[in-house]
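re: ur question from earlier - yeah i can do the single chain one, its not a big deal. heres the input i used so u can compare w yours
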Amino acid sequence: MSMLPRRIGWAFALAGVFSLLINSLMLGPSLYMLQIYDRVMPGQNQLTLVFSSLALLLVLAVLCFLEIGRSRLLVRLGMELDATLAPRVLEASMDAQLPVLQRNPTQVFADLTVVRQFLTGNGVFALFDAPWFFIYVAVLFVVHPWLGWLALACALVLLGIALGSRMVTASASGAATDAALAVGAQQQSTLRMAPVIHAMGMLPPLRAAWSRHFADQTATQERAESLEHRASAVSKFFRYTQQSLSLAGGAVLVIRGEISPGAMIVTNLLMSRALAPLDLLVGTWRPLMQAQSAWGRIQQLLRDNPPRPPGTLVQDPHGRLELRRVSVRVPGRDAPVLQDINLDIPAGSMVCVVGPSGSGKSSLVRVMLGLWPGYDGEVLLDGAALSRWQPQALGQCVGYLPQELEFLEGTVAQNISRFGELDSEQVVAAARAAAVHDMVLRLPKGYQTPLGEFGMRLSAGQKQRIGLARALYGGPRLVVLDEPDANLDDAGESALREAVTALRAGGVTVVLITHRAALVHTADMLLVMRQGRLAHYGAPTQVLAEQQAASAVSVIQGSSP
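and the output i got, formated as tokens:
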């Protein structure tokens, strides 16, 4: 990653060398025409025609290979940019999603595509070719100063059109991009909630709202494209006018005997070649601005989510958790999500976390697992900060069952085994521990049944039990379960209690968010959260005795997660 700017610099420097050779050789056709009009035709010298034609063919062949080489270089640069940035962008996007603040994290991958496509498109060629305008103008000055001044005047007009085009279209293009992103995010959200929308008759009002947003986006897009087309039309009009002015100026000089007819035609071609990159810039302002905006969003994402320390600890943890003065804040919210949490969970103990809705229970367990970057304070596992642990090694020793459960594209076995090296015995053992083995065998393809967005549709209870099996896979030393009994039937709750009992017997640290009195009374410690603060922490009998009985019963039995 750190070497990427240097490699990009070298690649652009090499592309500049290619552009130097290409633009130098582009003088070949002009010199050829000058030979034809000034030497071959007046002198009827066929030998000069043959050698000039052969030389031109050689120049055009070399020019072709140079164009191919420059294109391949930029394509490879785009692919290297993808290969280098994509893993880092994926990591940053996942970090941005941990506190559930990023609205549309997948957009950044589309931004990466926009940048790559610009690097391999005509716009970047125009940027490389534009500096050679001065060489062509210098040649025109050599032929005749009037032609050089005419080229400079035309270039100033084209630059004025380009800058004016950017000023006029910048805001409209940015608004069109933002509107398209907003409509795309709304479409994804609507499609994700399709069952709820159909069941409760929400489609007509949502369709009306979507139609209004889509109409606004279309109008914004139409305005941006209309302004762009107008700027392109003005540029095209001036280009045609410039060609006529160039011929007219050259004709005047021919009539006055200051240049030859061949020089008139050649200088017209040179002026067109000199102004072509500037004209192309007018047509590529929008892709350039889109690439600039996309690169800005990528850079912002990477700045907001810097790489995490790699960590060095790889030993199996015992499971002791410590939180020291941990506080968490989110933008747009005055009160902290968690405030000044001090907590010590001994290894091998079972802790039940209870509290009213919105008290910070789920946020607390996410911080315990290092899933909320940017918190204040310290989170220690076995006395070492989470940042010191090697993430993959630590992840293999941790089991986590979140409230909102989703599966990746893959089979039941792959999801239970966390997409690592598949150990069939451990998969079955985890499924048995979660009492889901028999249910899996009844699926169409058993453990090979596909899951995920395009896989088998499972009930909430089935998903939760498979998620529990995934959390138990591999014999973790720390298991965090966030409302694991929310969708379970009696058999599932019984299996959960047996699984928790087995974990405790094996010396596994268990952190369990629940409102079931049966689980609370069997825990080693009871933790009560209120308004982001740790209200009570201790043995269940002690905690229940310390707080008011009515409040305790309400927290344990009546509150929803």
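The chain has two domains: 4-304, 321-558. not sure if urs matches, ping me
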